Amino acid sequence: MKNCPVVRLIKQTYHHGDLRNALVSEALKLLEQEGAEGFTLRDLAARVGVSHAAPYAHFEDKNALLAAVAVAGFQKLTAYLETAIKDKSDPAEQYVRMGEAYVCFGIENPALYTLMFASEELPEQRDRFPELKEAGAAAFGALSGMLDSMQQSGFMRQGELDGFGFAVWAHVHGLTSLIITGRAECAGDCAGAGIGSAEEAIRMSLLGLLHGLKNPTTA
Amino acid sequence: MKNCPVVRLIKQTYHHGDLRNALVSEALKLLEQEGAEGFTLRDLAARVGVSHAAPYAHFEDKNALLAAVAVAGFQKLTAYLETAIKDKSDPAEQYVRMGEAYVCFGIENPALYTLMFASEELPEQRDRFPELKEAGAAAFGALSGMLDSMQQSGFMRQGELDGFGFAVWAHVHGLTSLIITGRAECAGDCAGAGIGSAEEAIRMSLLGLLHGLKNPTTA
DNA sequence: TTACCAATCTTGACAGCGGTAAGTTAGGGG
DNA sequence: CCCCTAACTTACCGCTGTCAAGATTGGTAA
Fold first, then answer.
1. CB B162 to CB A188 under 8 A?
2. What's the mean pLDDT in B81-109?
3. What residues have CB less than 8 Å from A135, skipping those under 6 apart?
4. DSSP secondary structure of B127-171
5. Around B184, how many Cα atoms within 13 Å sit in the side-chain half-sphere?
6. Is the pLDDT higher at A76 or at B214?
7. In chain B, which residues have their Cβ closer than 8 Å to the Cβ of A219?
8. Which 3 state secondary structure label does DSSP give A52?
9. Who among B96, B117, B119 is closest to A36 (CB)?
10. Strand stretches in chain B, DSSP E
């Protein structure tokens, strides 16, 4: 094998050098190309130019690899959310901007977003990747921090910040998830503008929720 | 084979008679037992007592089988939602009841719910199962119908019913999805009541959204 | 009744997947 | 310079979805 010229052409070194990061970043590309189905360890390894067993030197599992990808996704999302409100000061505008940015991130990276919120249903599995939990919490922290600053600036009423954050998170996550899975058209059977009306619907529902959370609950 | 007494004991007939329905209903059980991972056609077939290739006489694909299961799930959900408000007349109570029922359904059938909202990301795949689309639309119809009656009774303001429905659907779906995937604890780091506070958070956010949608948007 | 047909189910095979074990390569510290 | 250890390859295993070919039956027509 050491004399195989073809292999020599493709890869100069036996040791890759940075396989772990290469796998994660290539996985991000592969994920959006092939979708969450069809995502194969062997395919990924071939793309990076290593054998199908090489990833096991850096990841215990396929799930561990996917968890690392999801962590990268949450970091991307966090940065995306914070960038969206960087040069905005008006509380309501910050709120809408971040909400729209959240949904936008999901639309632009549907397979990644789906992976990030994949079930990992077993309680055992949930505790397997603490970094994943942290990365998710950091993304939620961006949202929560924005709401916190809204409260401190007197825009929203005090109290129950955690509940507010959860409600807003659930709302934008629900919007994103429904749009990604194609239920948006199902809901709005208005044979109209399409994307334009979807943006309007998102803005409307975001503002509706904000308005309701701003003021004390009636019932 | 026709003389094998063991097989004779287990199954009396060569032809199952109602294999299609048996597969779907057994799949519903198997799904909650094993989770969406670990769900295997061969396992399912063995449980029903047929060979591993028998399902292909009734379903083109594993995805087709799963689609049928998802259809059954949506029918279950629709019935669940309608039952929840059957003997209630107060608009706000209907709203909260149905919202809580929606979330409750997801919590009680997490794997099924996840399957129902699984990506089927490819646009081609999305159009493959029209009954699935219809069943999903029917579930949304229960929600939308409830909102419609709220409007007709003068409780909510007129207009943009589709947008309202989508916003409410997104909200309850987001709540359900986050709870199922274990993000609820991540958001509420309040080391308190747990389930009790989650129910309170759900109710609060539902009422918040309702309040915001009831009244004209300020911004 | 009998013969046959089409649907249903079984058996056996295939490629591709995730994962493991044993051997190979090579960079880096003694 | 050697060798040790991490990184990587090769070969293999069991399992999966899927397909093709044959066996089995209920029902239909003669």
1. yes
2. 95
3. A70, A71, A74, A75, A78
4. TT-HHHHHHHHHHHHHHHHHHHHHHHTTSS-SS-HHHHHHHHHHH
5. 22
6. A76
7. 92, 96, 207
8. coil
9. B119
10. none
Burial of B123 (0-12, 13-18, 19+ CB in 10 A): exposed
Q: What is the largest CA-CA distance in chain A?
A: 78
In the block, residue with structure tokens 């959900």: B77
State the pTM of this model: 0.89
Mean pLDDT, chain B, rounded, equals: 85
Calculate the average pLDDT of chain A.
85
Q: Which two tokens stand for residue B197?
A: 């506070």
What is the amino acid identity at position A50? V
Q: Which of A35, A120, A190 is nearest residue B162 as measured by Cβ atoms?
A: A190
Q: Which two tokens stand for residue B17?
A: 């008679």
Tokens of A209: 């929720």
Residue A133 CB lies within 7 Å of the nucleic strand C: no
pLDDT (0 to 100) of residue A7: 42
Residue A59: how many CB atoms within 10 A of its CB? Answer: 18
Name the amino acid, one letter, at B107: I
- What gap in Å lies between CA A217 and CA A50, rounded to an integer? 58
Q: Which residue has the tokens 């759900």?
A: B202
Alpha-carbon gap, residue B137 to B95, rounded angstroms = 19
| Chain C footprint bases within 7 A of protein beta carbons | 7-13, 16-22, 24-27
Alpha-carbon distances of B196 from B45, B180, B200, rounded to whole Å: 40, 16, 6
Contact of B32 with chain A, judged by CB distance below 8 Å, is answered with: no
- Calpha distance A63→A103 (Å, rounded): 25
Which nucleotide lies nearest residue B40, CA to C1'? D16
List the one residue out of B23, B103, B105 whose CA is nearest residue B67.
B23
pLDDT band at A184 (very low <50, low <70, confident <90, very high): confident
* Confidence at A218, pLDDT banded by 50, 70, 90: very low
Residue A100 confidence (pLDDT) above 60: yes
Most confident of A3-17, B41-55, B185-199: B41-55
Quote the pLDDT of residue B197: 65
Nearest to A149 by CA among A209, A80, A89: A89
